[in-house]
Amino acid sequence: MLGVRIGLLTGGGDCPGLNAVIRAAVRKGIGAYSAELVGFRDGWRGVLDDVCDELTIESTRGILPRGGTILGSSRTNPAKREDGVGVVADTLARHGLDGLIAIGGEDTLGAANVLSEAGINVIGVPKTIDNDLGATDQTFGFDTALQIATEAIDRLHTTAESHHRVMVVEVMGRSAGWIALHSGLAGGADVILIPEIPFDVGDVCGLIARRHQRGRPFSIVVVAEGAMPKEGTMTIVTGELDEFGHPRLGGIGHQLEREIEARTGFETRATVLGHVQRGGTPTAFDRVLATRLGLAAIDAAHAGHWAHMTALHATSIELVSLAVAVAEVRRVPVEEYERYGVLFG
Ligand code: F6P
């Protein structure tokens, strides 16, 4: 029996573990199902422009521990083009593909869902360091980013203490503060600012000043790049929008640095971790999670379970409807943040 022919793509911001998904899907696809796999370059752009290569066990050998994605990525949105659905369908037909496995976050999978509703066969695999996809308990990439951010906070702690400084650490997290919250908790931060809860810089400075009065002349402030001040408390600047309408972030750390120093008189320095959090080798946890999601995705493609996303539920990998999966972003619940309030300061 002839196996299915499947196209694979990785879209949106890259993250550690993408290659582990590709490797697992290719190995099981070829080994167990005699499937044929094709990798599209640079996310949806490769499907629109029809740029792809055959994926084989040989061409995907050795990629398990490699960060990034061997397929490349982009923030191209096929749903933004009037002829997007037609062009994707033509590319699939030209290569005799039964469907696509799209590995991505809310944007890539949102586009996958639009295409799926228009009749294209798609299976989604959830990735993002932000850990903000609603229908899965955790996305791969998050654990690696968390380790990197925690290690950075540990390192900043020792230098903050030596110089009696306030250190502001800006981590990623556009609309969800999971990296900030978990790295801040793991690193013993004094202040954690997340997008879900607008902050008052006056309160932040008050807490830092009280620490100084108690003989702790250094502080660690972890801020998610998407954290916002309460209206009227501090002016902030954001960058231009991408194809999915998201502003380019990165800057709140330095703005806080200036504000805290001006208001408290304490020497303050900001570190923006930025893309360091997305680079390099995945943790063992992310490699295993990504592998399990890749195996489940090729199982679903072989069985024709289109319009689904593979998801981690407790310790099991299950399929959820793609439409349900992209319906909501998973943000930090306010009660969860407040539970840790006793640890701050
Ligand atoms: O992929 C998620 C993410 O890392 C966000 O945390 C961040 O806001 C965004 O991507 C940055 O995107 P880019 O790499 O395109 O600047």
Structure explained in plain terms:
Helices cover 38% and strands 17% of the residues. With 345 residues, the protein is of the alpha/beta class. The N and C termini lie far apart (64 Å). The model has no long low-confidence stretch (mean pLDDT 96). Bound molecules: 6-O-phosphono-beta-D-fructofuranose (F6P).
Biggest beta sheet attributes: 7 strands, mixed
Rg: 22 Å
Shape: elongated
Task: Please provide the ordered H/E string of secondary-structure elements.
Answer: EHEHEHEHEHEHEHEHEHEEHH
Helical content band: 25-40%
Structural category is alpha/beta
Low-confidence stretches: none
Placed side by side, the strands forming the largest sheet appear as 3-2-1-4-5-10-11
Give the N-terminus to C-terminus distance in angstroms: 64 Å
Task: Give the tally of β-strands.
Answer: 11
Per DSSP, what share of the residues sits in E-state strands of 2 or more residues?
Answer: 15-25%
Which cofactor or ligand species appear?
Answer: 6-O-phosphono-beta-D-fructofuranose
Count the helices. How many? Answer: 11
Rounded mean pLDDT score: 96
Task: Give a nutshell description of this structure.
The chain has 345 residues and is an alpha/beta fold. The chain is 38% helix and 17% strand.
Features:
345 residues, alpha/beta, four-stranded parallel sheet, seven-stranded mixed sheet, 11 helices, binds 6-O-phosphono-beta-D-fructofuranose
